[in-house]
Amino acid sequence: MSCCDSAASPSPLRIEGTATVALAGNPNVGKSTLFNALTGLHQHVGNWSGKTVERKEGTCSIGDLTIRLVDLPGTHSLSALSPEELVAREFIALESPDVVISVVDASNLERNLYLTLQLLELTDRVIVALNMIDLAERKGLVIDVRELERRLGVPVVPLVAERRDGPADVLAAIGRVLQRGELAAPPRAGLPVAVAEAVGRIASTLPERPAGFDSAWFARKLLEGDSAILEVAGRTPALGAAHDLARELRADPHLADAEAEVISAQYELLSTLLDGVVRKGTGRLDWSDALDRVVLHRYWGYPILIGVFALMFWATFSLGAGTPISNALTRLLDEVGGGLQLALVRAGAPDLLVNFIVAGLWAGFETVVGFFPLIAVFFTAFALLEDSGYLARAAYLVDRFMSAIGLHGRSFLPLLMGFGCNVPAVMSARGIDNPGDRLLTILVNPLMLCQARLVVFVFFAATFFSGWRAAVVMLSLYGLSALLVVLMSALLKRTLFQSEPAPFLLELPPYHLPVWRNVATHAWRSTRMFIRRAGGQITVMTAAIWLFTHLPLGPVDESFAGRLGHLLAPLGRSMGLDWRLLVSLIAGFLAKEGVLASLAVLYGVGPHGLAGALRHAVSPLAAYAFMVVSLVYIPCFSTLVVIRRETLSWRWTAFASLYGLVLAFVLGTGIFQIGRLLGLG
Amino acid sequence: MVAPLSQLQPGQRGRITRVGGASSVRRRMLDLGLVPGTEIAAIHAAPLRDPVAFLIRGYHLAMRRRDAEAIAVELL
């Protein structure tokens, strides 16, 4: 929607130019929905400089005024506990946006307004957008909006999901705040006398706007022992005196708990502010609690969990792949590819060019399109689970297992999804709010045996092992995959991720019927992001690998890939792999199921002759080593692209591909050599 | 009687008297409203006893027993 025609401000705005407006709020309070409604298609996604936090910006306008809208990351507070909180805090304190919109969950007002109070400490140009009023009403809460507005001294705008005029009301409120002359003093928490005195003493040693911050706020953060502010004060000579004084004061037993006292004072203020504003009406949210009694039941909890996830995977892989729709899509693409080939040949294009365009570029494009239905279905299901409140319950149920390997309950779904496809699995790790756990979940994800590798393993198991042995081989690979995830997370947790302990604090929101529009937007955004940002790279890379395996012209073993295969042959020998198997792994980097097609080319046989050719050339032991190597050696290219997108770091992307190579070499060599010693080769 | 929050049985209520623990963990808990003086009720334990869901300030918050140990409550 366009903001211009929906902005029905009662008094026409007399301001021109550009205003910066920031959106702040807890995670999952509908901040993104409001952002999308306000900016429509005028948005830009990047990341905060030097931080792995997504930065979303958009524009809209009221009259002649252009608004630059910045969507801050969702946070519970403005402490310095995560990069998200630091980003939000520094933007508001240092870049002084003209207006800050504080999006709050009306059904959980007290804890949400805690963040609003923290915003009000930094700026008085705040608008409170009251979201999820319908949920509050169903919880039996009646909110006196006018009274809340009077007490907070800032505009409070109710947003109702079914009504679409909420965004227009928010724009009108932005106009009011910008035009307002005299500002009402925002409510301030009364600090205990000793704390207030100490803050005053520290502030008196500070220059005006220390490091760009408000001096009273800066002084209080020093007293609280805020790590980021201590760091700033510690390295700025002009703030050294305040830094030392604060350290001295923190050692005073009367002030040792200043932090808790300040936060208590803020929550006390909130209780006073909300007293009489929020009234408990009739009709409590009994059904949500009743549902929890079943869903979290000692005996039914896990069967329901397994059922829900089984349904989700069934939907993803049966609706997303191998259905009439996706088959028709594949057929259509194949036919277009065939038509393209024919047209090129007719036009007299050289064979090499025709092959490059059809088997390289077009095939790459097909890979991307092939992911489309799968990702769309998966993220629709994911958004349904998230929006309904079940995903939080699932995390709650499985946390006991995840904590055993040093992870959070929220990591469960992304890992489980890895058994299907690592691409959406890595993308779904976005829901984990602890940055270390999120990164860890992403990095170990490629070790999960995905469907594409399953295709290769089933073929190999059937070719080299008969009857029950094939089943044992398959089970051992699944077991190894899970075991490696456990070992690798434990190892990373003890080495690279030795951060401060992160508590498991998970909110269990009341269940609610998902709003179909939100689910669709969610799914569409994830899918579009994959196509737009990963699509191009995957297509280009597929074409590049095609060139690598086909140039220079001539037999395959003289191509660049073939030569590399020969070059790596000594490494391969220790794992029992010949150069053809090595080259097929290079092709498998593109898409793991591509290993089989490239082996057929490399052994110079058709798809039906491959089993025989392999049995002739490779021993069962080497075949098993090959399966283990192809399980771990590298994430497929599409997965690497999304790892880069999600971590915003080349370093971690390189790490994800390198540790796999090392691990694959160690495991492959170990299995082949030990197997030979045992006389299995 | 004062006890760690982790010992609150589903159905029992308490009032928070003290919040301890490592500084970042503690700050996070305080930010979420687990401040001294607040009333808290245990409502449910996960099937394998851990984590535990609590009712605080009108919302449900799940916590591991290990984290809840750092919070002292006066049983009500």
Describe the structure.
- The complex is a heterodimer of chains A (681) and B (76).
- Chain A has 681 residues and is of the alpha/beta class.
- In chain A, the strands form two sheets. Chain A has a seven-stranded mixed β-sheet, sandwiched between helices.
- In chain A, strand 5, helix 4 and strand 6 form a beta-alpha-beta unit.
- In chain A, helix 24 packs across helix 25.
- The longest helix of chain A is centred in the middle third of the chain and has 38 residues.
- The radius of gyration of chain A is 29 Å and the shape is elongated.
- The relative contact order of chain A is 0.07.
- The N terminus of chain A is likely disordered.
- Chain B contains two helices and six strands; from the N terminus they run E-E-H-E-E-E-H-E.
- Helices cover 17% and strands 42% of the residues of chain B.
- Chain B is globular.
- Chain B has a single domain, classed as SH3 type barrels (Roll).
- The mean pLDDT of chain B is 92.
- Chain B has a six-stranded antiparallel β-sheet.
- With 76 residues, chain B is of the alpha+beta class.
- In chain B, a hairpin with a 2-residue loop joins strand 4 and strand 5.
- At the A-B interface, helix 4, helix 12, helix 17 and strand 10 of A face helix 1 and strand 5 of B.
- Strand 10 of chain A pairs antiparallel with strand 5 of chain B, so a sheet runs across the interface.
Structural class designation of chain A: alpha/beta
- Give start-end ranges of low-pLDDT stretches of chain B: none
Strand content of chain A: 5-15%
Determine and state the CATH class of chain B.
Answer: Mainly Beta
Number of helices of chain B: 2
Indicate the CATH topology of chain B: SH3 type barrels
Could you tell me the strand content of chain B as a percent range? Answer: 35-45%
Shape of chain A: elongated
Sheet of most strands of chain A: 7 strands, mixed
Helix content of chain B: 10-25%
Instruction: State the separation between the terminal residues of chain A, measured CA to CA.
Output: 67 Å
Strand order of the largest sheet of chain A: 2-3-4-1-5-6-8
Computed Rg of chain B = 11 Å
The ordered string of helix (H) and strand (E) elements of chain B is EEHEEEHE
Kindly state the mean pLDDT of chain B as a whole number?
92
